[in-house]
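Q: What changes when guanosine-5'-diphosphate is included in the input?
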Amino acid sequence: MIKPVVAIVGRPNVGKSTLFNRLVGERVSIVEDRPSITRDRIYGDSEWLGNPFIVIDTGGIELDDQSTIKAQMRYQAQVAIEEADVILFVVDVRAGLTNMDRDVAELLRQSNKPVILVANKAENNQEAEMNKYDFYELGFDDPQLISAEHGRRTGDLLDKLIEYFPEVEEELYDDDTIKISVIGRPNVGKSSLVNRILGEQRVIVSDIAGTTRDAIDTPFSHDDNDYVIIDTAGMRRRGKVDRGVEKYSVIRSLRAVDRSDVVLVVLDASEGLTDQDKKIAGYAHDEGKGVVIVVNKWDLVEKDTHTMNAYIEEIRYQAGFLNYAPIIFTSALTGKRVMEVLDIVNYVVEQHNRRISTNLLNKVIEDAVAMNQPPSNKHGKRMKIFYATQPRVKPPLFVLFVNDPELMHFSYKRYLENQIRGAFGFEGTPIKILARGR
Ligand code: GDP
Ligand code: GDP
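A: The predicted holo structure follows.
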């Protein structure tokens, strides 16, 4: 399902990220012990009264460091205007109206998007009721008084918000279709790669190319499999969105990741992984998507026998959390190894869907425990694993029934993950491990 997008906009310190956390906070995916990526989360799923939606905290979207606050805010408002179905414009009712609020308002008024004015930090009713009149000058409807920090009246805000939602778009493909998104910085060769894959004779591109708001979808068949490539670069090509300043559409990429089974993270061999790549790959990891790293423009690299290994080592070092992701070296220019990308995708899809029998799984866990005892707490209480099951695939989820889930330590979880991978592989797919009390 393609969900409506809500963007939170406003000057610094009004409480955008607090509101964001209030809206998506409890929904953080089941088991992640990796603090670095989630901290700068700018994008999350939420739901109100059965209406799922996506929230963007534009405060986390930044131009380069040298930009002024004003330029940052302009940029953030611009992203919101382009990406969102509804905009939450947050102001600080305690601080009152500022010129920065006026600047943001000016931009938002020029858009045709619905804007809800949110007056945050309204714990003190009297003060809030008095100050709210300041904000009428901005030309929006009555401000919604809330306290994001204390969760006050956010329900009323959400009631109002969902009234603005457009009809929800249905996902266009069935479950058997392998959905591949192609992400990476501009110019790394995403489109060239996609064109190469589609141009291959054994690939049959279907007549109808679906177009969503975020990407150009190209469905095709190959060796009896149905695929769709979700190409975020295609959009820009067709000139529908051109924002000049923007280097990399994070949000569009994240939305493409959301809709896919496997994410191809494409990079230019001469540049390596960028921070944005890592952020998006981290999101794919969190969301349990298959990930393949494609090092493109390999033709341009001067190589000896060590080059490829050195490259792999560097990527593993840069993005340790993706240590399961296959790395392939391609040239979209010469076509070298381009069709192998599809073979790897197929393999990753298989791993992503792989189910391990309860018997076999418990054998591996027992062996792991025998080799390396589970942790105990400071009172000497040790974790005991009774048994394990795999209730889910896409991504594989392993549930361990234990005496006390609190005793599970992330390092032990990582150990178990390594043992499971050692026994079964699971290349290209994240796996999730959840400890549960009986
Ligand atoms: P952002 O820069 O707009 O994302 O703002 P933050 O969410 O980081 O919040 C800025 C400051 O305002 C933090 O110190 C928050 O704790 C505080 N804050 C956020 N929401 C509220 C609220 O509802 N009431 C009060 N009193 N403080 C809040
Ligand atoms: P995108 O913005 O990621 O979609 O990148 P493009 O596919 O538009 O490619 C950007 C530029 O890099 C174009 O000039 C391509 O011809 C060139 N390019 C793409 N792939 C390769 C490659 O593997 N090797 C070389 N040498 N050039 C490439």
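Observations recorded in class: The first helix runs from residue 16 to 24.
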